[in-house]
Amino acid sequence: MLTVDFQRFRVTPGDRVLDMGCGAGRHAFELYRRGADVVAFDQDAGELDGVEKMFAAMRLEGEVPEDAAAETVQGDALDLPFPDDHFDGIVASEVLEHIPDDMRAMRELLRVLKPGGRLAVTVPSWLPERVCWALSEDYHTAPGGHVRIYTRAELEAKLKATGFKVGGHHHAHGLHAPYWWIKCAVGVDNDGNPLAKAYHRLLVWDIMNRPLATRLAERVMNPLIGKSVVVYLTKPATPDGPVPAKETADAL
């Protein structure tokens, strides 16, 4: 299940692309299939072990171009272990809402992205996330959980203050918001609840089959209750530099 739209976030074979906070690797795998040289980066060694095994399986099954490359790197989003101007593109999907010092992480993304490079950022949308927080304290207080709810305006303002140029947005996964509301209402760890199980089966069926009816329904639902908002950005080819910290604080 991809959140980034690869018709908007174009990848050319041979592009060096970072999936920052890759988690289980869903975007890293798609980048690899498209011929990018992928770095799947995360703090969780267990997640990276699974991603590396999938990379190996994809190579073995011939699912990726021969010239594409993929590796995993463990580290901290606040201190990325890469040189300046290193990547042609970066995906940061569902990660910034976990980071207390999110603007420091944004500055690191700007630093390692080449001038003219592309960035796709996804975070939970304000309304679906606000409902989840209202329904369940456990949803957002678990260790490593979400520390903030972004409005799109706040997210874009912070990224612009860092030095990025905003290039458009959309919402995704409208069908998934009700599932998380159900989970929050019955207990986020209550996987045996009949309603949650039934809705989960529906989502799995939809992902596997992608019928026209649910595609059209989600297209209508996304702007209203899409679970994620996706913002596309670029690093200016001749950056003016980030806004000083005091001005950034005043603007927000």
Features:
globular; seven-stranded mixed beta sheet; Rossmann fold; disordered C terminus; 252 residues; alpha/beta
Question: What is the tally of helical segments?
Answer: 10
User: Measured on Cα atoms, how large is the radius of gyration?
Assistant: 18 Å
Strand tally: 7
* Helical/strand content category: alpha/beta
CATH superfamily label of the domain at 16-125 and 143-173 and 225-238: Vaccinia Virus protein VP39
Quickly name the level 1 CATH class of the domain at 16-125 and 143-173 and 225-238: Alpha Beta
Strand order of the largest sheet: 3-2-1-4-5-7-6
Protein name: Methyltransferase domain-containing protein
Pfam families: Methyltransf_11
Keywords: Methyltransferase, Transferase
Domain Methyltransferase type: 18-120
What is shown here, in short?
The chain has 252 residues and is of the alpha/beta class. Helix content is 43%, strand content 20%. Keywords: Methyltransferase, Transferase.
Task: Explain the layout of strands and helices.
Layout: E1 16-20, H1 26-33, E2 37-42, H2 45-60, E3 69-74, E4 87-93, H3 102-112, E5 113-124, H4 126-135, H5 137-141, H6 152-162, E6 165-172, H7 176-186, H8 194-209, H9 212-225, E7 228-234, H10 245-251
Parallel strand pairs: 1-2, 1-4, 2-3, 4-5
Antiparallel strand pairs: 5-7, 6-7
Helix pairs in contact: 1-2, 4-7, 7-8
